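Bug #77: duplicate submission created two jobs. Keeping one. Sequence:
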Amino acid sequence: MAEERLLDDDKDKKYRFRINADGEEELIVGEGEDIRPVVEEAELSFDEAEDYEDYAYDGEDDERYTTHEDEKAVAALLERAREDVEQGNFSTALEYVDQASDILPDDGEVAAMELTVYTKNLTDFSQNVMPQALTAAKKVAQFTSAESKKRLAETGADRLNSMICALQSQADELSERNEQGKAERAVRFDADNKKAMTRFFVSLAPLALFVALAVYFSTIMFADDSGVFIVLTIVFAVLSLICFAVCVFTARAFNITARRVRMNRDNSRTQVGRDYEACMTRLSALRTIYDAVTK
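Kept job's structure:
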């Protein structure tokens, strides 16, 4: 759960910054952005979406020597898995597929059955099965025969295509809202940042001047017996300290406004931006599976 903590002052409180559950700063617009739930049937959720590429099959397995007995064992396991799939016993079918995968991890028919079982005949693409489904799909694309791919396509390609089209529409809407929000905030954030930067450099100029004068008079302060140079050295040193304090204040304000500008460009800092990134991640995964069974 996010820790609601105001990080910097904003008079109208339109834009607030808080620490989220991951310990990162995020931008909150008003009392919370107008977030409309993004739903693709009952199974679509963007909460804590994972990067499916972390689970992707890389196509690099240790070389194995395949025997005729291995092929017979895998064929028997796949037959049992098919029978369970026809009866809707996907959990039992998965056990047979796992055994077959241990024997022949780069077999095309095993990969096709893995994809079938994980997605329940290409009908279930929920978040919890997507990593395994994506891994199986990449193996299908590499090892499965055209005939087996055709059977998979006949089973679920149309459904996948419908999901992709619907999700693409949602992604376009989220992208538009995300970019529009960024543009609206950028007008204010950029203006505030330029003002803060100007104040910082304006305060820096007298600091540099007074420091230079203090250093200069400190080198000659004993050259005048009247003590005027000593007094000037002290005066300029005090003025330098005052200007330094002002610079610290303006530098802090400049840092805050610069941070706002950077955060505004980061999709992960707003809810709509995170929804967009999660939507694109899921869309990419669905396209990978679709391409695996249709190409």
